[in-house]
Design brief:
Blueprint (H helix, E strand, L loop, with lengths): L1 E5 L4 H13 L3 E6 L19 E5 L5 H11 L3 E4 L6 H6 L1 H24 L3 H6 L1 E7 L23 H20 L3 E6 L1 E3 L8 H10 L4 E4 L5 E6 H14 L5 E4 L4 E3 H15 L12 E4 L14 H7 L7 H14 L1 H11 L12
Parallel strand pairs: 1-2, 1-4, 2-3, 4-5, 5-6, 6-10, 7-9, 8-12
Antiparallel strand pairs: 9-11
The structure holds nicotinamide-adenine-dinucleotide.
The site of nicotinamide-adenine-dinucleotide has 32 residues, from helix 1, helix 4, strand 5 and strand 7.
InterPro entries: dTDP_Gluc_deHydtase, NAD(P)-bd_dom, NAD(P)-bd_dom_sf
GO molecular function, one term: dTDP-glucose 4,6-dehydratase activity
Organism: Parvibaculum lavamentivorans (strain DS-1 / DSM 13023 / NCIMB 13966)
């Protein structure tokens, strides 16, 4: 099978591609325009593989998309390309509309015309998998979980743009019949995440003895999933999910932001016993809350567990240990990313996505 992965040079897309190349026989085309958030080092283990190809393509450019589909003739599209950082969406929402909404419509239109040109078994087998976030559901109180039936109530420009793209995907299925499947996942963490998100930012700042910013009182709750578990869920949904359905994905690992930051600090105290910054908790600083900051996200994952037999392998603790160790061992990768690509006057003030 030929698979197009959009956003394959990003944090989650690269984990999906590593999995597809290492554990399946499928061919993969990574379609990515290489924004600041991309990191091709995340693909160094697979980029020479004969089943891997890269296309430097922007989903905002419909003509370029049509050429890629015409030449590659995919059986499956896994759509991950997006602007993904909430804080950036607050500062510059237009980019999020252009890529997440208009780009997704461009991709849907390209897929529609390509799919319409197919016949028989090829047409029936085609799938468009749209990868989205639990943030489209808005904010929970102390009780309850997001299910696939929860009404959408996005609160940030990022989540609103993802919600809009989810609606487009749904509409293209209902109106034109394209075989789509959508997934909505909670916060991911793991190796190769761009160092503006809460976990990598906290690890890197703590290693360097810089302050560890925490929004508000740190009591906002997120559900966390190790990125390789999400990649496996995505592969399962793309290959076996029911057409027209939505699947929620999560780690059943709710933590307050301050718990996450304290866990990282104690791991670093343990792994770096000679660090002069121990105890790393002393670096924590509470900063003004993010506007529109959702209080709690929590996911009911019973549908994907029941229908597709997926469940995470890593606990929050085991995944966090792997992540902290990766950032300690790969200083060269994140230093280069920060130096080369981050126009980061706001470094030090980024929080959970
Ligand atoms: P990321 O920011 O790390 O990577 C995004 C990738 O998309 C980058 O490689 C970037 O170059 C590419 N891209 C951006 N704009 C593009 C464009 N116009 N054309 C082509 N490529 C473009 O994001 P991520 O964290 O890997 O997230 C991937 C997807 O998963 C996104 O759709 C995001 O909304 C969703 N998601 C993320 C999380 C999370 O915790 N990170 C959780 C749930 C869902």
């Amino acid at each position: 099978m030929r698979v197009i992965v959009t956003g394959g040079a990003g944090f989650i897309g690269s984990a999906v591609i590593r999995l597809l190349i290492n554990e399946t026989e499928h061919e993969v085309l990574n379609l990515d325009c290489l924004t600041y958030a991309s990191d091709q080092a995340a693909l160094s283990s697979v980029c020479e593989h004969p089943r891997y190809r890269f296309s430097h393509t922007d989903i905002r450019k419909p003509d370029a998309l049509r050429r890629v589909f015409r030449d590659y003739r995919p059986h499956l599209v896994m759509h991950l390309a997006a602007e993904s950082h909430v804080d950036r969406s607050i500062d510059a929402p237009a980019d999020f509309i252009e890529t997440n909404v208009v780009g997704t419509v461009n991709l849907l239109e390209t897929a529609r015309s390509y799919w319409s040109s197919l016949d028989g078994a090829e047409k029936r087998a085609f799938r468009f998998h749209h990868v989205s976030t639990d943030e489209v559901y808005g904010s929970l109180g102390a009780e309850g979980y997001f299910t696939e039936e929860t009404a959408y109530a996005p609160n940030s420009p990022y989540s609103a743009s993802k919600a809009a793209s989810d609606h487009m995907v749904r509409a293209w299925h209902a109106t034109y019949g394209i075989p789509v499947v959508t997934s909505n996942c909670s916060n991911n963490f793991g190796p190769h995440q761009f160092p503006e998100k809460l976990i990598p930012l906290t690890i890197i700042n703590a290693i360097e003895g810089k302050s560890l910013p925490v929004y508000g009182n740190g009591m906002n709750i997120r559900d966390w999933l190790f990125v390789e578990d999400h990649a496996r869920a995505l592969m399962t949904i793309a290959l076996r999910g029911r057409v027209g359905e939505t699947y929620n994905v999560g780690g059943d690992a709710e933590r307050t932001n301050i718990e996450v930051v304290r866990s990282i600090c104690s791991l670093l105290d343990e792994i770096l016993p000679h660090s002069s910054f121990r105890p790393h908790e002393n670096l924590i600083r509470f900063v003004a809350d993010r506007p529109g900051h959702d209080m709690r996200y929590a996911i009911d994952t019973s549908k994907i567990r029941r229908e597709l037999g997926w469940q995470p392998v890593e606990s929050f603790e085991s995944g966090l240990r792997k992540t902290v160790e990766w950032y300690i061992d790969n200083r060269a990768i994140w230093t280069r990313l920060l130096l080369d690509r981050y126009q980061g006057e706001r470094l030090g003030l980024m929080g959970a996505r």
